[in-house]
Amino acid sequence: MPRPSRSFTRDPSVAEHKLAPGTWKRVLSFAQPYRLALSIFLTLIVIDALLGAAGPLLFRAIIDDGIANQDTRLVIILASVVAGLAVVSSAVGLIQRYFSSRIGEGLIYDLRTQVFDHVQRMPIGFFTRAQTGALVSRLNGDIQGAQQAFTSTLSSVVGNVVGVTATLTAMFILSWQITLVSLILVPLFVLPARFVGRKLATITRERYALNGAMSQTMTERFNVSGALLVKLFGHPDEESRVYAERAGRVRDIGVTQSMYQRFFMSSLGLLASIAVAIAYGVGGVMAAQGTMQVGTVVALTAYLGRLYGPLTSLSNVQVDVMTTMVSFERVLEVLDLEPMIQDPVDPVSMPTGSIDVRFEHVGFRYPTATEVSLASLEGVAKLDSHQTEDILHDVTLHVPAGHTLAVVGPSGAGKTTLAGLVSRLYDPTAGSVRLGGVDIREVRQGDITATVGVVSQDAHLFHDTLRSNLLYAKPDATDAELIHALTNAQVWPVIERLPDGLDTVVGDRGHRLSGGEKQRVAIARLLLKNPAVVVLDEATAHLDSTSEAAVQQALAAAMHGRTSIVIAHRLATVRDADEIVVVDAGHIVERGTHDDLLELDGLYATLSRTQFAGDQVTAA
Q1: So what's the architecture of 8-335 in CATH?
Q2: Structure confidence by residue, pLDDT tens digits, 50-95
Q3: DSSP structural state of residue 539
Q4: C-alpha angle with apex 614: 610 to 616, nearest 5 degrees?
Q5: Please, which of 65, 328, 462, 579 could form a disulfide with 146 given CB 3.0 to 4.6 Å?
Q6: 579-584/587-592 β-pairing
């Protein structure tokens, strides 16, 4: 009985999609490492199809040459051949499956590793715009869809073409009259497939959309931050009602889909039975009249079962092929997005020892969406190409080796942007940033990462053990080194009291630890890294007084003997800096020591008085 093609559940409009020039050539390039395996795979498909086509001819010979002539020896020999072909066909199918899996899983591995490696090299601006779910979809759904181009789709097309060709050739040789009658019925098989296919494609799109919405809901509600927000501000009953409505619609779609599929199968089964009945009727009459042998009639009806299913699938092969090609195109789209920040062709070595930091006439604007992102990853039809305004203007700074520079100013002034430029999260649009006298654009990114350590206001910990989170900075660190770093970060006594110690799983984003404890673990991670330059970006911004005091002690250890840049809102935390610069609207408007700036009575003094007044009110 004919089987429904997977393509009939897909959107037929995909067949009208126009591929980008060169896509086919690039897709074929992914198959280059698997040329031998693909050749064997295709050969096995052809052999399997030919073996299947030989069966009805053997049935014919058994009936006409063996049974009709009462030749028991020939019957036994031909029956043994049929059994032998079945064994060979099973073996061929097993080997074919091995090569299919080897090629398919190999392609998935190649594509996943390429996309993962490429995405990791994208600038931070890419991640601020792209939807995480869309990226995960590229790594999973689209890559799996793409590999089907060389496995299921290729095997289906080749197997069906060879099978139909062999079947029709044999049928025409046996009886061109019955073959023509059989072909007249082919449109009757395609029509229900097309009708059901359109219906299935429509409800499948809706099901995917609903499943995506439910997945997004669960992702947002079932992480720690989302669950906390729902408990504090949400309406659980309303959340459950909306989710139940969507789940109910998915249930209804599932029932409808099952009924359409059953209608499809019943229709094809009915038509196949009618076709067999016609073949038996016409062939039986011819056999009764002596113009056709009985074995030929049996062979023809057996061939009908191998004809309609493949022909029905081939009628929609364009949808199958284009669906896999669109998946490939979506993967290539990500690979074609060039990272804005790349290693130089001829990198310069980073100086060793103490390193100074220098900004020379630096200007900066954030990249536009078209420079760092894709519309399909943001869920929009078209990316915004308007150029953003400059965030920094002609900034010139020098932090001598071993000195501490504090950067203060109102929110949105450009302080965090300065910090990002030091670690090369972005490149300046004008001027240069130098470490040890070397323009960081001339140095490998790995060398910059090893030289510059950053602690931000929102320290991120992976959902893993404390040990794993610390080893992220120094994979070969011993337990003694971990404990030493945690001790210097003023957090080892807390870790030591935990039941599992260093093997404690910190939870999603480290939520099993307090804010102050997370910051101190992040500082311990920085101490393990032992960078020459330390950047502290609002590292104590959200902490209470007790936690802040502990973190400040840890920060003192982190900054000791290192070139340090401290971004801070709380001016009390930076008054001992060697130099303080005040940034406003992307310009350095003041610089000097704490006392110098108070005496200047400018923006810094205003900020200081405002915070002092606020502290007094809080204390009262």
Answers
A1: Up-down Bundle (1.20)
A2: 888 888 989 899 998 888 888 889 999 999 999 999 999 999 989 9
A3: T
A4: 120
A5: 328
A6: antiparallel
